[in-house]
Design brief:
- The structure is a homodimer of 270-residue chains.
- Chain A has 270 residues and is of the alpha/beta class.
- Helices cover 41% and strands 13% of the residues of chain A.
- The first copy, chain A, contains 12 helices and 8 strands.
- In chain A, strands 3-4-2-5-1-6-7-8 form an 8-stranded mixed sheet, with helices on both faces.
- In chain A, helix 8 links the parallel strand 6 (148-153) and strand 7.
- In chain A, helix 1 packs across helix 12 and helix 6 crosses helix 7.
- The first copy, chain A, is globular and about 55 Å long.
- The A-B interface holds A 11-14, 17, 42, 44, 47-48, 91, 133-134, 154, 156-158, 161-162, 165, 192, 195-197, 233, 236-237, 239-240 and B 11-14, 17, 42, 44, 47-48, 91, 133-134, 154, 156-158, 161-162, 165, 192, 195-197, 233, 236-237, 239-240.
- The structure holds adenosine-5'-triphosphate (2 copies) and magnesium ion (2 copies).
- Residues 16-17, 40, 44, 130 of chain A line the site of one magnesium ion.
Chain lengths: 270, 270
C-alpha cells in the first residue's frame, strides 16, 4: 500500500509543483518508487519533467473523461530516473470541470481519479499529486485519491489568510467523501529564515497545529517539516532543463534542502 | 477620462496585488487620484489595505449581483491616503461566476463592472483593477472595464509558459467585447537581477514585444517597465500592517522601486 500525498494550496505560486518534483526525485533517489500525478491544466509538473503537453495523446485528461482509458496506458517513466513515474497533464484539463458536472451530485466526478488509479498505485511506494491553485473539481479528485496532505506555503501574511478556507475544505472532505484524509504537514517554500515576518508566520502555523493535538481534527498530527526550503535560483532554473534540481544541480542548497525534506517526510510515515 | 489599467496574470503569486497596492499608492503620492478595484475572492488587495472583508456590507460582490447597488455606495477612501479609493472584495465573489452564468451569452455578465463604474471612475485619474489568478468571469470583467493591461510577472521559466495563453485571451477579448484593449507593459516582480535565468526570460519577453512593433496586435506598444521590482521583505510585511510599502517603509528598496515604476507608467501615458 503506497503513501498517497496531495500537494495542496489554493494560493498560487507557493511551491506546490517545485515541491512535488523535487520531493519526488529525492524520495526516488533514496530507492523508493514514486508516482507523480499532474492535476493542473497549467501542466507545470509535466513541463518541469521535460515533457511537452502538446505532444501527449494520453494524459490525466483522457484518464478522467474516457472510461476505456486505464492509468497503465497513461503512465510514463521519467527519463533517467528509474524509480520515477508520472501521469502527465494537458491544458485541456481546464475543461474537465464542466465535462463532469453531471456526475458531481453522485460523488462520481470527485472519485474518478481514485478509482482509475487504484491498481497502478500498488506498483509504487509513494504517490504525489500536484494540484492546481484552486479548490475545484481537479483538486477535489486529488483530495479523494490521497490519504495525506502536504501544504507547501510561503511564510507570508497573505498565506495565512488562505489557510482557514483550505482547512475548512479539508475538514468537509473528510466528513464527506474521504474519511481517511489527514494533514501530514506544511513545507515552508522560498523561505527567508532571518526575518521577523517568517518567524511570526511559522509560529502561527505551529501554534495552530499544537492546539489540535489530541483532537479528531485532520491536522491533529501535522507538523512543519524541517528543513524550510531556502530560496535558490537553481530551483527556478531546473524546470527549463526538464530536470529535478537533484540532477540539474546536485550540490545546490535546493538539492540539499529537498533531500533533507524527503528524509523528514519518510520518517513521518504513519 | 481616467487611465483604466487591469493587473492581469493567470499564474498565481506573481505580484499582481502587491503591484496594485504599491503602484497605486505611489501614483497617489504624486498627487494623482487613484481608484483600486479588488476583483479577487481571496480579497488580498482589500486585506492589504487594512480592511476586513468579513466586516463589509457593500463590496464588489453586491455591485456585480444587485442592480440597485451603485459604485458610489461601495467605494471607500483608504485611511490616511486622501487620493486613494478602493472598491473592496469579499470571499462571496467566488460565487459570482455561477450566479451570472445566464447573462454570459448576451455579453452582459462580462460588462457589469464597466457599466456600473462608468460614473464613479470620472472622479479619478487612474483606475487599477486587481484580478484573480484565472481567466474566468471576474478577470473578464476586469479586462472589459479596462483599456490597458499591465502584466506583473516573475522572470522564471514557467512564467513564460503561461504568457502565450494569456495573450491569446487578450487578443480574443479585443476582437470580441473590448476593441480598445491594449497591453501597456510588463512589471518584473520579485526580481533577481544578476541571474542568467532572469536575463534570459527578460530577453524573451522584450523580443516578443519587439516583434509586434508596427502590427495591430494588442501588445504592439508594450514595454518591460523600468525598474524591475527587487525582492524586499518590506513588501511582504506591509500587508500585515494594512499599509502600502510607501507608508510602512518609505526608505526601503520596495518603496523606491515602486515609486520609480509609477513614474515609468505615468510617463508612458498614451
Ligand atoms: N525555493 C525556491 N527558490 C527559488 N525559486 C523557487 C523556489 N520554489 C519555487 N520557485 C519558483 O517559484 C515559482 C512558483 O513555484 P511553483 O510553480 O512550484 O508554485 P505552485 O504553487 O506550483 O504554483 P501554481 O499555483 O501556479 O501551481 C516557479 O517559477 C518556481 O520555479
Ligand atoms: N518584491 C517582493 N518582495 C518580497 N515579497 C513580495 C514581493 N512581491 C510580492 N511579494 C509577496 O509574494 C506573495 C505573492 O505576491 P502577490 O499576492 O502580490 O501575488 P499575486 O499575483 O497577487 O497572487 P494571487 O495570484 O494569489 O492573486 C505575497 O505574500 C507578497 O507579499
Ligand atoms: Mg503548480
Ligand atoms: Mg493577488
Amino acid at each position: 500500500e503506497p503513501r498517497r500525498i496531495a500537494l495542496i494550496n489554493q494560493k498560487g505560486g507557493v511551491g506546490k509543483t517545485t515541491t512535488t518534483v523535487n520531493l519526488g526525485a529525492a524520495l526516488a533517489a533514496s530507492g523508493l518508487r514514486v508516482l507523480m500525478i499532474d492535476l493542473d491544466p497549467q501542466a507545470h509538473l509535466t513541463l518541469s519533467l521535460g515533457i511537452d503537453p502538446d505532444d501527449l495523446d494520453l494524459s490525466v485528461y483522457e484518464l478522467l473523461t474516457e472510461t476505456g482509458v486505464s492509468a497503465g496506458e497513461v503512465v510514463r517513466m521519467v527519463e533517467g530516473s528509474p524509480n520515477l513515474g508520472v501521469l502527465p497533464a494537458v491544458t485541456n484539463l481546464a475543461g474537465v470541470e464542466s465535462e463532469l458536472s453531471e456526475m458531481v451530485a453522485t460523488g462520481l466526478a470527485q472519485t474518478i481519479l481514485r478509482n482509475k488509479t487504484n491498481d497502478l498505485v500498488r506498483q509504487f511506494d509513494y504517490v504525489l499529486l500536484d494540484c492546481p491553485p484552486s479548490l475545484g473539481l481537479l483538486t477535489i479528485n486529488g483530495l479523494t485519491a490521497a490519504q495525506e496532505i502536504i501544504v507547501p506555503m510561503q511564510a507570508h501574511f497573505l498565506a495565512l489568510q488562505g489557510m482557514g478556507k483550505l482547512f475548512e475544505t479539508i475538514n468537509m472532505i473528510r466528513q464527506g467523501i474521504n474519511p481517511s484524509l489527514t494533514v501530514a504537514g506544511v513545507v515552508l517554500c522560498m523561505h527567508e529564515a532571518n526575518t521577523i515576518l517568517a518567524s511570526d508566520v511559522v509560529a502561527d502555523v505551529e501554534g495552530f497545529f499544537e492546539s489540535a493535538r489530541g483532537t479528531a481534527l485532520p491536522w491533529a498530527n501535522a507538523e512543519v517539516y524541517p528543513p524550510p526550503i531556502r530560496r535558490n535560483i537553481k530551483l527556478a532554473e531546473a524546470p527549463s532543463f526538464g530536470q529535478s534540481v537533484l540532477t540539474y544541480a546536485p550540490d545546490s542548497n535546493g538539492a540539499k534542502d529537498y533531500a533533507r525534506l524527503a528524509r523528514s517526510v519518510a520518517k513521518a510515515a504513519v
